[in-house]
Amino acid sequence: MNDLHTPDVIDLTRSWQALQRSAWIMLLCAAVVGGAVYALFKQQTPIYEASTILLSASNQTGNQTVNSTLVSAPPLPPGALEGALSNINVIRDINVGVRSITSLSPAERNELQRDLVAGATGQGHVIRVTGSTDIYGNGTYTLQARHPNARVAARLANLATDALVAWDAQRGREKVTSARRALEAQLRDLETRLQREGPLGATLTRNQRLLLDQRANRTDELNNLLALERAVVGSLAVVAPAVPPVTPVEPRPTRNAIIAGLFALFVSGAFVLARAALTRTITSDADLHALNLRLIGEVPRLRRAHQGQSLLAMMHRGKATDSVAYLANAVRAQLPERPNIILMTSLLPGDGKSTLSAGLASSLAASGQRTLLLEADLRHPTQRSLWGIAADTADWVNMPGAAPFPGEEARDLQAALLNPAAAQAMKLRDNLHLIVTPTQLSSSVRLNTDAFAAALRIWSPAYDVVVIDAPPVLAVADPLAIAPHVGGVLIVLEPGKAPARGVQRLLDALELANANVLGVAFNKINPRHAGSAYGYGYGYGADARPTRRGA
Protein backbone atom coordinates (compact mmCIF):
# COMPACT_ATOMS: atom_id res chain seq x y z
CA MET A 1 0.00 0.00 0.00
CA ASN A 2 1.46 3.31 -1.05
CA ASP A 3 1.88 6.04 1.53
CA LEU A 4 0.55 9.32 0.17
CA HIS A 5 2.33 11.26 2.91
CA THR A 6 5.82 10.72 1.48
CA PRO A 7 7.62 13.97 0.72
CA ASP A 8 7.08 15.29 -2.79
CA VAL A 9 10.00 16.16 -5.00
CA ILE A 10 10.02 19.03 -7.42
CA ASP A 11 8.31 17.80 -10.57
CA LEU A 12 8.65 20.30 -13.38
CA THR A 13 6.65 18.09 -15.71
CA ARG A 14 3.67 18.18 -13.35
CA SER A 15 3.94 21.95 -13.05
CA TRP A 16 4.19 22.35 -16.81
CA GLN A 17 1.15 20.14 -17.35
CA ALA A 18 -0.81 22.13 -14.76
CA LEU A 19 0.03 25.33 -16.62
CA GLN A 20 -0.96 23.81 -19.96
CA ARG A 21 -4.29 22.58 -18.62
CA SER A 22 -5.11 26.03 -17.28
CA ALA A 23 -3.57 27.97 -20.16
CA TRP A 24 -6.87 29.14 -21.62
CA ILE A 25 -8.09 30.37 -18.21
CA MET A 26 -4.82 32.20 -17.63
CA LEU A 27 -4.93 33.78 -21.08
CA LEU A 28 -8.57 34.76 -20.60
CA CYS A 29 -7.73 36.36 -17.24
CA ALA A 30 -4.80 38.25 -18.80
CA ALA A 31 -7.00 39.41 -21.70
CA VAL A 32 -9.77 40.63 -19.37
CA VAL A 33 -7.37 42.51 -17.10
CA GLY A 34 -5.46 43.97 -20.05
CA GLY A 35 -8.69 45.04 -21.75
CA ALA A 36 -9.99 46.71 -18.59
CA VAL A 37 -6.71 48.58 -18.06
CA TYR A 38 -6.66 49.65 -21.71
CA ALA A 39 -10.22 51.00 -21.49
CA LEU A 40 -9.41 52.80 -18.23
CA PHE A 41 -6.31 54.58 -19.52
CA LYS A 42 -7.82 55.25 -22.93
CA GLN A 43 -10.36 57.55 -21.26
CA GLN A 44 -7.71 59.69 -19.57
CA THR A 45 -6.52 63.04 -20.96
CA PRO A 46 -3.30 62.67 -22.99
CA ILE A 47 -0.19 64.39 -21.62
CA TYR A 48 2.56 65.63 -23.95
CA GLU A 49 6.18 66.08 -22.91
CA ALA A 50 8.55 68.57 -24.59
CA SER A 51 12.29 68.47 -23.93
CA THR A 52 15.25 70.80 -24.23
CA ILE A 53 18.93 70.02 -23.78
CA LEU A 54 21.23 72.28 -21.73
CA LEU A 55 25.01 72.11 -21.83
CA SER A 56 26.98 72.96 -18.71
CA ALA A 57 30.62 73.76 -19.50
CA SER A 58 33.52 75.60 -17.91
CA ASN A 59 34.17 79.03 -19.49
CA GLN A 60 37.95 78.88 -19.12
CA THR A 61 39.73 79.12 -22.48
CA GLY A 62 43.31 78.86 -23.65
CA ASN A 63 43.57 82.67 -24.05
CA GLN A 64 44.85 84.28 -20.87
CA THR A 65 43.53 87.72 -21.86
CA VAL A 66 40.04 86.32 -22.33
CA ASN A 67 40.23 84.40 -19.07
CA SER A 68 41.32 87.53 -17.19
CA THR A 69 38.64 89.79 -18.67
CA LEU A 70 35.75 87.30 -18.81
CA VAL A 71 33.66 86.81 -15.68
CA SER A 72 31.82 83.51 -15.60
CA ALA A 73 29.59 81.69 -13.17
CA PRO A 74 31.26 79.05 -11.02
CA PRO A 75 30.68 75.38 -11.95
CA LEU A 76 27.29 73.98 -11.02
CA PRO A 77 27.46 71.56 -8.10
CA PRO A 78 25.41 68.35 -8.29
CA GLY A 79 21.71 68.98 -7.76
CA ALA A 80 22.00 72.75 -8.15
CA LEU A 81 19.99 72.97 -11.36
CA GLU A 82 17.22 70.75 -9.99
CA GLY A 83 17.04 73.01 -6.96
CA ALA A 84 16.92 76.10 -9.17
CA LEU A 85 13.41 75.12 -10.26
CA SER A 86 12.33 75.93 -6.71
CA ASN A 87 13.86 79.40 -6.89
CA ILE A 88 11.16 82.04 -6.61
CA ASN A 89 12.80 84.23 -9.26
CA VAL A 90 12.87 81.34 -11.75
CA ILE A 91 9.21 80.50 -11.07
CA ARG A 92 8.30 84.19 -11.40
CA ASP A 93 10.04 84.47 -14.78
CA ILE A 94 8.26 81.36 -16.03
CA ASN A 95 4.90 82.62 -14.80
CA VAL A 96 5.46 85.94 -16.57
CA GLY A 97 6.05 84.01 -19.79
CA VAL A 98 2.96 81.85 -19.20
CA ARG A 99 0.82 84.98 -19.31
CA SER A 100 1.85 85.49 -22.92
CA ILE A 101 0.61 82.05 -24.06
CA THR A 102 -2.59 83.02 -25.85
CA SER A 103 -3.72 79.45 -26.54
CA LEU A 104 -4.51 78.97 -22.85
CA SER A 105 -7.83 79.94 -21.40
CA PRO A 106 -7.79 81.99 -18.17
CA ALA A 107 -8.78 78.92 -16.16
CA GLU A 108 -6.06 76.80 -17.80
CA ARG A 109 -3.49 79.55 -17.26
CA ASN A 110 -4.37 79.86 -13.58
CA GLU A 111 -4.20 76.09 -13.13
CA LEU A 112 -0.80 75.91 -14.84
CA GLN A 113 0.56 78.71 -12.66
CA ARG A 114 -0.69 76.93 -9.54
CA ASP A 115 1.06 73.76 -10.72
CA LEU A 116 4.29 75.68 -11.24
CA VAL A 117 4.11 77.13 -7.73
CA ALA A 118 3.36 73.65 -6.38
CA GLY A 119 6.45 72.42 -8.22
CA ALA A 120 8.51 74.99 -6.36
CA THR A 121 7.41 73.34 -3.11
CA GLY A 122 8.21 69.87 -4.40
CA GLN A 123 4.59 68.85 -4.96
CA GLY A 124 4.30 69.29 -8.71
CA HIS A 125 5.67 67.52 -11.74
CA VAL A 126 5.05 69.98 -14.58
CA ILE A 127 8.76 70.72 -15.12
CA ARG A 128 11.71 68.57 -14.17
CA VAL A 129 15.43 68.47 -14.90
CA THR A 130 17.63 65.39 -15.12
CA GLY A 131 21.36 65.09 -15.72
CA SER A 132 24.65 65.62 -13.95
CA THR A 133 28.09 67.23 -14.30
CA ASP A 134 31.64 66.21 -13.47
CA ILE A 135 33.87 67.91 -10.92
CA TYR A 136 34.79 70.58 -13.50
CA GLY A 137 31.18 71.49 -14.13
CA ASN A 138 30.97 69.81 -17.56
CA GLY A 139 27.87 67.84 -18.42
CA THR A 140 24.41 67.91 -19.99
CA TYR A 141 20.93 68.38 -18.59
CA THR A 142 17.54 67.51 -20.04
CA LEU A 143 14.62 69.75 -19.12
CA GLN A 144 11.15 68.26 -19.63
CA ALA A 145 7.81 70.06 -19.46
CA ARG A 146 4.41 68.32 -19.50
CA HIS A 147 1.02 69.63 -20.54
CA PRO A 148 -2.14 68.31 -22.27
CA ASN A 149 -1.42 70.72 -25.14
CA ALA A 150 1.69 69.83 -27.16
CA ARG A 151 2.43 73.44 -28.19
CA VAL A 152 2.02 74.65 -24.63
CA ALA A 153 4.40 71.94 -23.43
CA ALA A 154 7.07 73.10 -25.90
CA ARG A 155 6.55 76.77 -24.99
CA LEU A 156 6.72 75.95 -21.30
CA ALA A 157 9.98 74.02 -21.75
CA ASN A 158 11.58 76.95 -23.59
CA LEU A 159 10.36 79.43 -20.95
CA ALA A 160 11.84 77.30 -18.19
CA THR A 161 15.11 77.01 -20.14
CA ASP A 162 15.35 80.77 -20.59
CA ALA A 163 14.62 81.30 -16.90
CA LEU A 164 17.34 78.84 -15.86
CA VAL A 165 19.89 80.41 -18.22
CA ALA A 166 19.05 83.85 -16.80
CA TRP A 167 19.34 82.46 -13.27
CA ASP A 168 22.74 80.97 -14.12
CA ALA A 169 23.99 84.28 -15.52
CA GLN A 170 22.72 86.14 -12.45
CA ARG A 171 24.58 83.60 -10.35
CA GLY A 172 27.81 84.72 -12.06
CA ARG A 173 27.03 88.42 -11.58
CA GLU A 174 26.46 88.21 -7.83
CA LYS A 175 30.07 88.90 -6.77
CA VAL A 176 30.58 91.61 -9.38
CA THR A 177 27.33 93.27 -8.37
CA SER A 178 28.31 93.12 -4.71
CA ALA A 179 31.69 94.72 -5.52
CA ARG A 180 29.95 97.42 -7.62
CA ARG A 181 27.62 98.28 -4.79
CA ALA A 182 30.55 98.50 -2.40
CA LEU A 183 32.40 100.93 -4.72
CA GLU A 184 29.26 103.01 -5.15
CA ALA A 185 28.98 103.27 -1.38
CA GLN A 186 32.62 104.31 -1.14
CA LEU A 187 32.10 106.99 -3.80
CA ARG A 188 29.13 108.37 -1.92
CA ASP A 189 31.25 108.51 1.24
CA LEU A 190 34.06 110.32 -0.62
CA GLU A 191 31.60 112.88 -1.99
CA THR A 192 30.32 113.53 1.50
CA ARG A 193 33.82 114.01 2.85
CA LEU A 194 34.70 116.37 -0.03
CA GLN A 195 31.67 118.49 0.72
CA ARG A 196 32.82 118.76 4.33
CA GLU A 197 36.22 120.10 3.18
CA GLY A 198 34.49 123.05 1.56
CA PRO A 199 34.40 124.39 -1.97
CA LEU A 200 37.22 123.48 -4.31
CA GLY A 201 39.36 126.54 -4.88
CA ALA A 202 42.34 127.32 -7.07
CA THR A 203 44.60 125.88 -4.49
CA LEU A 204 43.53 122.51 -3.11
CA THR A 205 44.19 121.48 0.39
CA ARG A 206 46.07 118.35 1.13
CA ASN A 207 42.85 116.49 2.21
CA GLN A 208 41.01 117.65 -0.89
CA ARG A 209 43.77 116.36 -3.19
CA LEU A 210 43.78 113.04 -1.34
CA LEU A 211 39.98 112.66 -1.54
CA LEU A 212 39.93 113.63 -5.22
CA ASP A 213 42.61 111.03 -6.01
CA GLN A 214 40.64 108.40 -4.12
CA ARG A 215 37.43 109.39 -5.95
CA ALA A 216 39.16 109.09 -9.31
CA ASN A 217 40.53 105.65 -8.47
CA ARG A 218 37.14 104.43 -7.22
CA THR A 219 35.47 105.83 -10.34
CA ASP A 220 37.88 103.92 -12.59
CA GLU A 221 37.31 100.75 -10.61
CA LEU A 222 33.52 101.22 -10.82
CA ASN A 223 33.67 101.71 -14.58
CA ASN A 224 35.67 98.49 -14.88
CA LEU A 225 33.13 96.62 -12.73
CA LEU A 226 30.25 97.97 -14.81
CA ALA A 227 31.96 96.66 -17.93
CA LEU A 228 32.62 93.30 -16.27
CA GLU A 229 29.03 93.11 -15.04
CA ARG A 230 27.79 93.46 -18.58
CA ALA A 231 30.22 90.78 -19.76
CA VAL A 232 29.32 88.16 -17.15
CA VAL A 233 28.32 84.80 -18.71
CA GLY A 234 26.79 81.72 -17.18
CA SER A 235 27.88 78.10 -17.46
CA LEU A 236 24.65 76.98 -19.19
CA ALA A 237 23.98 77.01 -22.93
CA VAL A 238 20.95 75.79 -24.86
CA VAL A 239 21.85 72.97 -27.23
CA ALA A 240 18.41 72.24 -28.69
CA PRO A 241 15.22 74.18 -28.00
CA ALA A 242 11.97 72.30 -27.45
CA VAL A 243 9.59 71.53 -30.31
CA PRO A 244 5.95 70.43 -29.97
CA PRO A 245 5.88 66.65 -29.37
CA VAL A 246 3.86 64.45 -31.71
CA THR A 247 2.82 61.58 -29.44
CA PRO A 248 1.72 61.78 -25.80
CA VAL A 249 3.77 60.20 -23.04
CA GLU A 250 0.74 59.57 -20.85
CA PRO A 251 -1.44 57.70 -20.73
CA ARG A 252 -0.02 54.69 -22.58
CA PRO A 253 -3.01 52.36 -22.76
CA THR A 254 -1.32 49.76 -24.94
CA ARG A 255 1.82 49.56 -22.81
CA ASN A 256 -0.14 49.59 -19.55
CA ALA A 257 -2.53 46.94 -20.88
CA ILE A 258 0.39 44.69 -21.84
CA ILE A 259 2.03 45.16 -18.44
CA ALA A 260 -1.25 44.51 -16.62
CA GLY A 261 -1.95 41.47 -18.80
CA LEU A 262 1.50 40.03 -18.14
CA PHE A 263 1.09 40.67 -14.44
CA ALA A 264 -2.30 38.94 -14.46
CA LEU A 265 -0.75 36.05 -16.40
CA PHE A 266 2.03 35.81 -13.81
CA VAL A 267 -0.39 35.92 -10.87
CA SER A 268 -2.75 33.38 -12.40
CA GLY A 269 0.20 31.13 -13.26
CA ALA A 270 1.47 31.37 -9.69
CA PHE A 271 -2.02 30.52 -8.44
CA VAL A 272 -2.21 27.49 -10.76
CA LEU A 273 1.21 26.27 -9.63
CA ALA A 274 0.33 26.78 -5.96
CA ARG A 275 -2.95 24.95 -6.43
CA ALA A 276 -1.21 22.12 -8.26
CA ALA A 277 1.32 21.84 -5.43
CA LEU A 278 -1.34 21.84 -2.71
CA THR A 279 -3.83 19.63 -4.55
CA ARG A 280 -2.03 16.57 -5.84
CA THR A 281 -3.71 15.03 -8.86
CA ILE A 282 -3.05 12.02 -11.05
CA THR A 283 -1.25 13.27 -14.14
CA SER A 284 1.01 10.45 -15.37
CA ASP A 285 1.75 6.76 -15.13
CA ALA A 286 4.32 7.57 -12.43
CA ASP A 287 1.47 8.74 -10.20
CA LEU A 288 -0.35 5.47 -10.92
CA HIS A 289 2.70 3.40 -10.06
CA ALA A 290 2.84 5.17 -6.71
CA LEU A 291 -0.63 3.71 -6.06
CA ASN A 292 0.30 0.23 -7.37
CA LEU A 293 -1.81 0.82 -10.46
CA ARG A 294 -0.87 0.20 -14.05
CA LEU A 295 -1.68 2.35 -17.05
CA ILE A 296 -3.61 0.23 -19.54
CA GLY A 297 -4.07 2.82 -22.27
CA GLU A 298 -4.46 6.45 -23.19
CA VAL A 299 -7.22 7.95 -25.32
CA PRO A 300 -6.81 11.49 -26.73
CA ARG A 301 -9.26 14.29 -26.21
CA LEU A 302 -11.67 14.43 -29.11
CA ARG A 303 -12.34 17.66 -30.93
CA ARG A 304 -15.74 19.25 -30.75
CA ALA A 305 -18.17 17.23 -32.84
CA HIS A 306 -19.62 18.84 -35.92
CA GLN A 307 -23.36 19.07 -36.36
CA GLY A 308 -24.80 15.62 -36.95
CA GLN A 309 -21.56 13.88 -35.96
CA SER A 310 -21.36 11.82 -32.77
CA LEU A 311 -18.41 11.58 -30.42
CA LEU A 312 -18.46 7.84 -30.90
CA ALA A 313 -17.96 8.25 -34.65
CA MET A 314 -15.03 10.62 -34.01
CA MET A 315 -13.47 8.09 -31.67
CA HIS A 316 -13.01 5.72 -34.59
CA ARG A 317 -10.95 8.11 -36.66
CA GLY A 318 -7.25 8.90 -36.66
CA LYS A 319 -5.15 8.23 -33.59
CA ALA A 320 -8.26 7.70 -31.47
CA THR A 321 -8.91 4.49 -33.42
CA ASP A 322 -5.46 3.17 -32.58
CA SER A 323 -5.72 4.20 -28.94
CA VAL A 324 -9.06 2.44 -28.42
CA ALA A 325 -7.81 -0.65 -30.30
CA TYR A 326 -4.70 -0.89 -28.09
CA LEU A 327 -6.84 -0.40 -25.02
CA ALA A 328 -9.21 -3.17 -26.15
CA ASN A 329 -6.34 -5.58 -26.79
CA ALA A 330 -4.68 -4.84 -23.45
CA VAL A 331 -7.94 -5.23 -21.50
CA ARG A 332 -8.89 -8.44 -23.32
CA ALA A 333 -5.44 -9.89 -22.62
CA GLN A 334 -5.74 -9.23 -18.88
CA LEU A 335 -9.34 -10.31 -18.55
CA PRO A 336 -9.77 -13.84 -17.21
CA GLU A 337 -11.55 -16.32 -19.42
CA ARG A 338 -14.45 -16.54 -17.00
CA PRO A 339 -16.16 -14.36 -16.02
CA ASN A 340 -15.45 -12.45 -19.24
CA ILE A 341 -16.96 -9.25 -17.88
CA ILE A 342 -15.38 -5.77 -17.75
CA LEU A 343 -16.82 -3.17 -15.38
CA MET A 344 -16.05 0.40 -16.52
CA THR A 345 -16.14 3.02 -13.76
CA SER A 346 -14.53 6.33 -12.86
CA LEU A 347 -13.84 8.60 -9.93
CA LEU A 348 -15.63 11.72 -11.16
CA PRO A 349 -18.48 12.45 -13.55
CA GLY A 350 -17.34 13.85 -16.87
CA ASP A 351 -14.26 11.62 -17.26
CA GLY A 352 -15.75 10.18 -20.46
CA LYS A 353 -16.43 6.72 -18.99
CA SER A 354 -19.59 6.08 -21.05
CA THR A 355 -18.00 7.19 -24.32
CA LEU A 356 -14.96 5.03 -23.66
CA SER A 357 -17.19 2.07 -22.74
CA ALA A 358 -19.01 2.40 -26.07
CA GLY A 359 -15.74 2.82 -27.96
CA LEU A 360 -14.18 -0.20 -26.24
CA ALA A 361 -17.22 -2.38 -26.97
CA SER A 362 -17.25 -1.25 -30.61
CA SER A 363 -13.53 -1.99 -31.00
CA LEU A 364 -13.90 -5.47 -29.47
CA ALA A 365 -16.81 -6.25 -31.78
CA ALA A 366 -14.85 -5.01 -34.80
CA SER A 367 -12.07 -7.46 -33.93
CA GLY A 368 -14.55 -10.37 -34.09
CA GLN A 369 -15.38 -10.59 -30.38
CA ARG A 370 -19.06 -11.18 -29.62
CA THR A 371 -19.68 -8.22 -27.32
CA LEU A 372 -22.53 -7.19 -25.05
CA LEU A 373 -22.66 -3.59 -23.77
CA LEU A 374 -24.77 -3.09 -20.65
CA GLU A 375 -25.67 0.38 -19.42
CA ALA A 376 -25.83 0.14 -15.62
CA ASP A 377 -25.64 3.87 -14.89
CA LEU A 378 -29.25 4.53 -13.86
CA ARG A 379 -28.80 8.19 -12.96
CA HIS A 380 -27.02 9.44 -16.07
CA PRO A 381 -27.78 7.11 -19.00
CA THR A 382 -26.05 8.26 -22.20
CA GLN A 383 -25.55 5.18 -24.38
CA ARG A 384 -28.63 5.73 -26.54
CA SER A 385 -27.55 9.28 -27.39
CA LEU A 386 -23.96 8.16 -27.99
CA TRP A 387 -25.00 5.62 -30.59
CA GLY A 388 -27.53 7.98 -32.13
CA ILE A 389 -29.07 6.73 -35.36
CA ALA A 390 -27.48 3.30 -34.92
CA ALA A 391 -29.54 2.81 -31.74
CA ASP A 392 -32.70 4.30 -33.25
CA THR A 393 -32.65 1.96 -36.27
CA ALA A 394 -31.23 -1.13 -34.56
CA ASP A 395 -32.93 -4.52 -34.80
CA TRP A 396 -33.98 -6.25 -31.61
CA VAL A 397 -32.59 -9.68 -30.71
CA ASN A 398 -33.55 -12.03 -27.91
CA MET A 399 -31.11 -12.44 -25.07
CA PRO A 400 -29.96 -15.95 -24.09
CA GLY A 401 -32.82 -17.87 -22.47
CA ALA A 402 -35.44 -15.30 -23.60
CA ALA A 403 -38.44 -15.96 -25.82
CA PRO A 404 -40.89 -13.08 -25.33
CA PHE A 405 -44.40 -12.96 -26.74
CA PRO A 406 -45.09 -10.14 -29.18
CA GLY A 407 -45.76 -6.92 -27.25
CA GLU A 408 -44.22 -8.25 -24.01
CA GLU A 409 -40.56 -7.62 -24.88
CA ALA A 410 -38.33 -6.24 -22.12
CA ARG A 411 -36.17 -3.74 -24.01
CA ASP A 412 -34.32 -1.93 -21.24
CA LEU A 413 -32.20 -3.06 -18.33
CA GLN A 414 -34.81 -2.55 -15.62
CA ALA A 415 -37.41 -4.47 -17.54
CA ALA A 416 -34.98 -7.19 -18.51
CA LEU A 417 -33.97 -7.76 -14.86
CA LEU A 418 -37.64 -8.02 -13.85
CA ASN A 419 -38.42 -10.45 -16.69
CA PRO A 420 -35.25 -12.10 -18.08
CA ALA A 421 -37.34 -14.45 -20.20
CA ALA A 422 -38.54 -11.46 -22.25
CA ALA A 423 -35.21 -9.58 -22.43
CA GLN A 424 -34.13 -8.17 -25.78
CA ALA A 425 -31.07 -6.16 -26.87
CA MET A 426 -30.33 -3.77 -29.69
CA LYS A 427 -28.20 -5.22 -32.46
CA LEU A 428 -26.03 -2.24 -33.28
CA ARG A 429 -23.83 -4.16 -35.71
CA ASP A 430 -22.43 -7.61 -36.15
CA ASN A 431 -21.11 -9.00 -32.84
CA LEU A 432 -22.34 -6.00 -30.83
CA HIS A 433 -25.49 -5.91 -28.71
CA LEU A 434 -26.63 -3.12 -26.38
CA ILE A 435 -29.05 -3.01 -23.44
CA VAL A 436 -29.78 0.54 -22.29
CA THR A 437 -31.26 2.07 -19.16
CA PRO A 438 -34.57 3.97 -19.28
CA THR A 439 -33.93 7.69 -19.64
CA GLN A 440 -36.61 8.75 -17.13
CA LEU A 441 -35.93 7.21 -13.75
CA SER A 442 -36.20 8.63 -10.27
CA SER A 443 -32.89 9.54 -8.64
CA SER A 444 -33.78 7.18 -5.78
CA VAL A 445 -33.99 4.11 -8.04
CA ARG A 446 -31.33 1.52 -7.24
CA LEU A 447 -30.00 -1.27 -9.39
CA ASN A 448 -31.21 -4.74 -8.33
CA THR A 449 -27.70 -6.12 -8.01
CA ASP A 450 -28.83 -9.68 -7.19
CA ALA A 451 -30.98 -9.79 -10.31
CA PHE A 452 -28.17 -8.15 -12.29
CA ALA A 453 -25.64 -10.77 -11.12
CA ALA A 454 -28.09 -13.55 -12.03
CA ALA A 455 -28.62 -12.04 -15.48
CA LEU A 456 -24.85 -11.84 -16.02
CA ARG A 457 -24.52 -15.54 -15.26
CA ILE A 458 -27.13 -16.26 -17.94
CA TRP A 459 -25.98 -13.81 -20.59
CA SER A 460 -22.17 -13.80 -20.36
CA PRO A 461 -21.58 -17.38 -21.63
CA ALA A 462 -23.10 -16.37 -24.98
CA TYR A 463 -20.57 -13.56 -25.48
CA ASP A 464 -16.82 -13.30 -25.67
CA VAL A 465 -16.81 -10.04 -23.68
CA VAL A 466 -19.41 -8.16 -21.63
CA VAL A 467 -18.76 -4.44 -21.05
CA ILE A 468 -20.67 -2.77 -18.22
CA ASP A 469 -21.00 1.04 -18.20
CA ALA A 470 -21.29 1.60 -14.43
CA PRO A 471 -21.56 4.87 -12.47
CA PRO A 472 -18.61 6.34 -10.52
CA VAL A 473 -17.68 4.12 -7.57
CA LEU A 474 -17.84 6.80 -4.90
CA ALA A 475 -21.13 8.23 -6.18
CA VAL A 476 -23.34 5.15 -5.61
CA ALA A 477 -22.81 1.67 -4.22
CA ASP A 478 -23.93 -0.20 -7.37
CA PRO A 479 -20.43 -0.73 -8.86
CA LEU A 480 -19.13 -2.14 -5.55
CA ALA A 481 -22.00 -4.63 -5.45
CA ILE A 482 -21.37 -5.68 -9.05
CA ALA A 483 -17.55 -5.81 -8.82
CA PRO A 484 -17.28 -9.30 -7.22
CA HIS A 485 -19.24 -10.77 -10.16
CA VAL A 486 -17.04 -9.40 -12.96
CA GLY A 487 -13.67 -10.48 -14.31
CA GLY A 488 -12.03 -7.07 -13.90
CA VAL A 489 -12.58 -3.38 -13.23
CA LEU A 490 -11.17 -0.73 -15.55
CA ILE A 491 -10.96 2.79 -14.04
CA VAL A 492 -11.32 5.74 -16.40
CA LEU A 493 -9.55 8.94 -15.28
CA GLU A 494 -8.88 12.32 -16.85
CA PRO A 495 -5.23 13.25 -16.10
CA GLY A 496 -4.87 16.32 -13.95
CA LYS A 497 -8.49 16.22 -12.80
CA ALA A 498 -8.64 13.28 -10.41
CA PRO A 499 -7.14 14.02 -6.94
CA ALA A 500 -4.73 11.35 -5.75
CA ARG A 501 -6.53 10.94 -2.42
CA GLY A 502 -9.82 10.40 -4.22
CA VAL A 503 -8.25 7.66 -6.34
CA GLN A 504 -6.84 6.12 -3.17
CA ARG A 505 -10.32 6.04 -1.64
CA LEU A 506 -11.70 4.47 -4.82
CA LEU A 507 -9.05 1.74 -4.70
CA ASP A 508 -9.71 1.09 -1.02
CA ALA A 509 -13.41 0.68 -1.76
CA LEU A 510 -12.75 -1.72 -4.64
CA GLU A 511 -10.30 -3.69 -2.53
CA LEU A 512 -12.90 -4.09 0.21
CA ALA A 513 -15.31 -5.33 -2.47
CA ASN A 514 -12.69 -7.94 -3.52
CA ALA A 515 -12.57 -6.48 -7.04
CA ASN A 516 -9.91 -7.31 -9.60
CA VAL A 517 -8.62 -3.92 -10.72
CA LEU A 518 -7.16 -4.29 -14.21
CA GLY A 519 -5.73 -0.79 -14.26
CA VAL A 520 -6.45 2.72 -15.47
CA ALA A 521 -7.34 4.17 -18.84
CA PHE A 522 -6.42 7.83 -19.24
CA ASN A 523 -9.07 9.69 -21.22
CA LYS A 524 -9.20 13.18 -22.75
CA ILE A 525 -5.43 13.58 -22.84
CA ASN A 526 -3.59 16.04 -25.04
CA PRO A 527 -2.13 14.02 -27.95
CA ARG A 528 1.17 15.89 -27.58
CA HIS A 529 1.52 14.50 -24.05
CA ALA A 530 0.89 10.89 -24.98
CA GLY A 531 3.21 8.23 -23.63
CA SER A 532 4.19 6.87 -27.02
CA ALA A 533 4.45 8.23 -30.50
CA TYR A 534 2.50 5.41 -32.18
CA GLY A 535 -0.85 4.75 -30.58
CA TYR A 536 -1.62 5.05 -26.92
CA GLY A 537 -0.91 2.43 -24.33
CA TYR A 538 1.48 0.63 -26.66
CA GLY A 539 3.67 -1.75 -24.71
CA TYR A 540 1.02 -3.58 -22.71
CA GLY A 541 1.00 -6.74 -24.73
CA ALA A 542 -0.87 -9.98 -24.72
CA ASP A 543 1.42 -11.52 -22.15
CA ALA A 544 0.13 -9.14 -19.47
CA ARG A 545 -1.60 -10.87 -16.60
CA PRO A 546 -4.41 -9.67 -14.33
CA THR A 547 -2.99 -8.19 -11.19
CA ARG A 548 -4.88 -7.33 -8.03
CA ARG A 549 -3.96 -4.08 -6.35
CA GLY A 550 -1.23 -4.57 -3.83
CA ALA A 551 -0.13 -7.91 -5.34
TrEMBL record:
Keywords: ATP-binding, Kinase, Membrane, Nucleotide-binding, Transferase, Transmembrane, Transmembrane helix, Tyrosine-protein kinase. Residues 343-513 form the AAA domain. Pfam families: AAA_31. InterPro entries: AAA_dom, Bact_polysacc_biosynth/exp, P-loop_NTPase, Wzc-like_C. The chain crosses the membrane at residues 22-41, 257-278. It comes from the Bacteria. This is Lipopolysaccharide biosynthesis protein. It comes from Deinococcus maricopensis (strain DSM 21211 / LMG 22137 / NRRL B-23946 / LB-34).
